[in-house]
Amino acid sequence: MKLIISKETLLEQLNRVVGAIEKKNTSDILENVLIQATPDTLKLVGTDQKIELSSSVEIQPEIPGQITAPARKLFDICKALPDGCFITIELDEQNSLHVKNQRSHFKLATLPAEAYPLLDDIPISQEVTLTEKSFKHLIEKVSFSMANQDVRYFLNGMLLDFQGTNLFAVATDGHRLAISKYKDSHDYDKEFYEKIIIPRKSVLELSRLLDSNSQLPLTLQTSENHIRIKKDNFRFTSKLIDGKYPDYQTAIPVKTNHTIILDREQFRDTLLRVAILSNEKFRSIHILLNDNTMFLHSNNPENETAEEEIDITYTGDLFETGFNVTYLLDAVNHLEGKEIKLELTTPDASAILYSDDDTGTRYIIMPVRM
Q1: CA-based R_g, the chain, Å
Q2: 136 and 243: one domain?
Q3: Euclidean distance between CA atoms 148 and 157, whole angstroms
């Protein structure tokens, strides 16, 4: 195998696949990237056997072939070489991989391509097409609410809920819930109903790789155990979490008693200030509504306190509750529009945050004891 490729092109291809590869693995070959050079294409594949990423580019190698090489070392070498240079990649008779430019020469150990575990044979059951921008937007609206290493393993991921011609993304850690609806028209061949849970690592990797400005079409394919996403010469495959996701609809308050309209930026800045002196472990703040004013208060074990107030439209009885300020800030930061609405029922019931300029997105946050 021998080929010549620009640094920028090779680095782009490597950057698309290295996220699936663990730096240290019990199997040496899973620390490697698969390099496949055909007469007109260079294809790179990375996997941890739960996620598989592949990317290809049209080139004409001098000598076709395939091999696996240490992914992170190859990536770091490529990144460190001078911008604008061309890199020669060549496999010698002893199966060592040489990475060279005019003044640099690196020799890497390899393992045979035939031993690399691929996830090619997946029986696809459903397929949806949507834009790259819209899918990344959908992911980012909810992914911050995913659990991390929760014993309820099905919470350590994001739910995609296909309901006819509607698609919802849902994430919860048991204390807060994020729901967002895909807004654009779907290119469905037919309606279908399916719920799949994408693991946390896969969701974060997708968020890293997808372009928020791209209108290119993405193809989402699902099977019983996998999701596959394809765009041009890039392919992402992930195993799904096998479990039953909670009925998130039951967590949404059906009727609320109070709707508070807030300037989004003012509310965010106020929360940031009050958060400074909140308890570092519990991050709780106290909220009180009375006579067209919202009072916010925090304290910590050092007996330090912070107090702020915001003018609002509220004429009901005295209302006191408390929330994790981080959860409130996460919701406010991911909502769009100048104004947001905070809906409250009772001090012990969950609150709803949303914006009329961000239809389809709802954040439900459980209160905390003060």
Answers
A1: 25
A2: yes
A3: 8
Per-residue pLDDT of the chain (370 residues; tens, 9 = 90+): 999 999 999 999 999 999 999 888 889 999 999 999 999 999 999 999 999 999 999 999 999 999 999 999 999 999 999 999 999 999 999 999 999 999 999 999 999 999 999 987 789 888 889 999 999 999 999 999 999 999 999 999 999 999 988 899 999 999 999 999 997 666 566 678 899 999 999 999 999 999 999 999 999 999 999 999 999 999 999 999 999 999 999 999 999 999 999 999 999 999 999 999 999 999 999 999 999 999 999 999 999 999 999 999 998 899 999 999 999 999 999 999 999 999 999 999 999 999 999 999 999 999 998 6
> Tokens 């849902």, residue?
170
**Residue 12 shares a structural domain with residue 110:** yes
Q: Among 229, 249, 269, where does a domain finish?
A: 249
Beta partners for residue 309, in sequence order: 295
Q: Which structural domain, as residue segments, surrounds residue 171?
A: 126-249
Q: Give me the residue label for tokens 């996620």.
A: 51
What CATH number does residue 218 fall under?
A: 3.10.150.10
Predicted TM-score (pTM) of this structure: 0.93
SS3 59: coil
Q: Return the bridge partners of 107, or none.
A: 98
d(CA 226, CA 246): 20
Q: Distance between CA 159 and CA 179 in Å, rounded?
A: 10
Task: List residues bridging with 67 in a β-sheet.
Answer: 35
The span from the CA of 25 to the CA of 51, in Å, is 14
Pairwise CA distance, residues 95 & 114, whole Å: 13
